[in-house]
Design brief:
Strand content: under 5%
Oligomer: single chain
Structural class: mainly alpha
Helix content: over 70%
Radius of gyration: 20 Å
Number of domains: 1
Distance between the termini: 39 Å
Number of strands: 0
Largest sheet: none
Length: 297
C-alpha cells in the first residue's frame, strides 16, 4: 500500500512546471494524471484533495497578483483605522487602551474572508475554460473536490493573518495579553472564516458558473464584516445597526478571535464564537454541496 501511495503521489505532481503561465497544456496534463490516479484501486480521495489544494497554491505562486490584494487590504485596514480612531477606545466597551488591539482581529478576519474567495475564483476560471468538467469526469467524489478547493482558500488565509500580526506588533505596538493561546485562537478563527467564505462562494460559482459572480460574494462579505462589532462594541452602536450587529453570527466569531488582544482567552468568550463558526460551516457546506448539483443545469 505504501508503494502504491508513493506512486500515486508522484503521478499527481509530476507535470510540467516550467511555464510561468498556468496554461492549457499544464491543465490537460494535470487532468490526465488526476483521472488516472483517481481510478487506481484503493486510492484515497485524500490524495486528490491534496492535489487540488496544491494546484491552487501553484497557481497562486505563478500569479502573485491573486494574493496581493488579500494581504494589502487588511494591512491597510489595521493601519488606517488604528490611526484614525486612536481615541475611540476611551469610550465604554472597548476594554483596551490601544485601538490596534481592537482593530487587528477585525482586519485579520477581513483578510481571511477575502482569501476565501480564492477557491471560488479558481473554480470560476476552470468552469469558463472547461477544465472543471475534466475533473468532474474523473472518478472523484464531490466532497474530495470541494475539500481541495476549500483547502486552497484556508492555506491562503494564513498569509494575510501573519502579515497583519507582524505589522500590528512590529509597527503599531499591539498587545497580546492572551499569550500563545491568543495567537492560536486568532489563527483558528481566521482559518474558520476562510473555510466558511470559500464554501459560500463555491455555492454561488456552482450556480452562476462565471467569474463575475464573485462580486455578489464580495458584497455579502463586506456587509457581514462591517455590520458587526468589527469597528465598535455593541455599547457604541445605535439604531437598527445595533440589532443587526447583535444577531450577526460574525459578531461572536470576531469576539472569539479578538479576546486574546484584550485579555485572557476564556471558554465563556470562546463558546459563542465556536458555536457560530460551527453552524456557519455546516450551513455553507450544505449550500456548496447542494449547488454542486447545479453545475450541469
Amino acid at each position: 500500500m505504501e508503494s502504491i501511495s508513493a506512486s500515486i503521489w508522484h503521478n499527481l505532481f509530476d507535470f510540467p512546471c516550467r511555464d510561468r503561465d498556468f496554461n492549457t497544456s499544464t491543465q490537460k496534463t494535470f487532468s490526465s494524471r488526476i483521472m488516472t490516479t483517481a481510478s487506481t484501486r484503493n486510492t484515497s480521495q485524500l490524495h486528490v484533495t491534496v492535489a487540488i489544494t496544491k494546484r491552487g497554491l501553484m497557481r497562486m505562486r505563478r500569479l502573485p497578483s491573486l494574493m496581493i490584494p488579500s494581504i494589502i487590504m487588511p494591512i491597510f485596514f489595521v493601519v488606517a483605522f488604528s490611526g484614525s480612531f486612536s481615541s475611540v477606545v476611551e469610550l465604554d466597551g472597548y476594554s483596551t487602551d490601544k485601538a490596534v488591539n481592537w482593530m487587528a482581529a477585525w482586519a485579520i478576519l477581513q483578510g481571511s474572508a477575502f482569501s476565501g474567495l480564492g477557491g471560488g475564483g479558481l473554480t470560476a476560471t476552470d468552469l469558463e475554460n472547461g477544465f472543471f468538467d475534466r475533473m468532474r469526469a474523473a472518478p472523484i467524489t464531490p466532497s474530495a473536490l470541494i475539500s481541495g478547493l476549500v483547502g486552497y482558500s484556508v492555506t491562503r488565509a494564513v498569509l494575510p493573518t501573519t502579515a497583519v500580526l507582524i505589522v500590528s506588533f512590529a509597527a503599531l505596538d499591539a498587545d497580546m495579553p492572551g499569550g500563545l493561546l491568543g495567537f492560536i485562537v486568532a489563527y483558528l478563527t481566521a482559518i474558520g472564516i476562510a473555510a466558511v467564505m470559500s464554501l459560500f462562494v463555491l455555492g454561488i460559482v456552482f450556480t452562476m458558473k462565471t467569474l463575475k459572480s464573485l462580486a455578489i460574494a464580495q458584497v455579502v462579505m463586506f456587509s457581514t464584516m462591517f455590520l458587526s462589532v468589527g469597528q465598535a462594541p455593541l455599547e457604541a452602536i445605535q439604531g437598527w445597526l445595533y440589532h443587526v450587529a447583535k444577531y450577526n453570527p460574525i459578531t461572536h466569531v470576531i469576539r472569539m478571535g479578538r479576546q486574546g488582544f484584550l485579555g485572557d482567552v476564556t471558554w465563556a468568550e470562546t463558546q459563542p464564537g465556536f458555536i457560530s463558526l460551527a453552524l456557519l460551516l455546516i450551513g455553507s457546506s450544505l449550500w456548496a454541496r447542494a449547488c454542486y448539483q447545479k453545475v450541469d443545469i
